[in-house]
Amino acid sequence: MKNVLKWPSFMLVLILSLVLSGCSTGEESSSSGGSGGSTDAKGTIEQIKERGKLIAGVKYDTKLFGLKDPASGEVEGFDIDIAKALAKQILGDETKVELKEVTSKTRIPMLQNGDIDIIIATMTITDERKEQVDFSGVYFEAGQSLLVKNDSAITGLESLGGVKVLAVKGSTSAQNIREKAPDAEVLEFDNYQDAFTALKAGKGEALTTDNIILIGMQQTDNNYKLVGGNFTSEPYGMAIRKGDTAFVEEVNSLLKSMKDSGEYDTLHEKWLGSKPE
Ligand code: GLU
């Protein structure tokens, strides 16, 4: 009698353990499939494919690289065309890209939060930033310079003692100018539109950032000139969540194929007026 009673409980334990092990396997696969943030075990490429679109963090205030036309609502520039080419490579359709505005200060947190898949936003590759994100290879070489009024007496870094210099928060430019011109008074703005508006309003005598961004500003107002040459090296890279090597390789393969096919040169000429040297 006792043995008969024990039989079902033994079976029960066996069944229960089978069910539990089955359950835990099911749970693991459903949790990795269901979550969607930066901690997702899935790589960015898989997330893009599942979603059916690439989400790129780009500038909205930087003529030549990423500028939103307030009339049409279109965002245009060198960085935007690279984002479209990446969507085409991954999804076969360059229109499958959602552009989200980033600033120099918000771009890394937005990438880390999972708000965007990639930063394509005039971003310099630095060792400090490499601690937080991974970078593609270099896709553009800029250098920091100064924008001043045509009649300004400022000729370069050596003239900045006691001068109010305008820069943007979170940029290498704001950091570098403090080192290169320690006697300047640096005023920081949230974005380049605000910084340029402040320069025009006389809130400072010079604006500092990458030469190519300053050239874009000068194209909209020829009362300003670049001075002081390039006093830093600013190699641009696309930033990717740390550890996603498959996505870094995908982006680097895009850069290589764009260079091999001549598409990179065409874009360079379209936005910057000449083929790369
Ligand atoms: N390339 C510089 C940087 O990454 C300046 C341009 C920008 O603020 O995006 O900080």
From TrEMBL:
Membrane-spanning segments: none
GO molecular function, one term: ligand-gated monoatomic ion channel activity
Native species: Paenibacillus xylanivorans
Name of this chain's protein: Amino acid ABC transporter substrate-binding protein
Assigned protein family: Belongs to the bacterial solute-binding protein 3 family.
Domain of life according to the entry: Bacteria
InterPro entries noted in UniProt: Bact_solute-bind_prot3, Iontro_rcpt_C, SBP_3_CS, Solute-binding_3/MltF_N
Annotated Ionotropic glutamate receptor C-terminal domain residues: 53-274
SUPFAM superfamilies registered for this protein in UniProt: Periplasmic binding protein-like II
Gene3D superfamilies: Periplasmic binding protein-like II
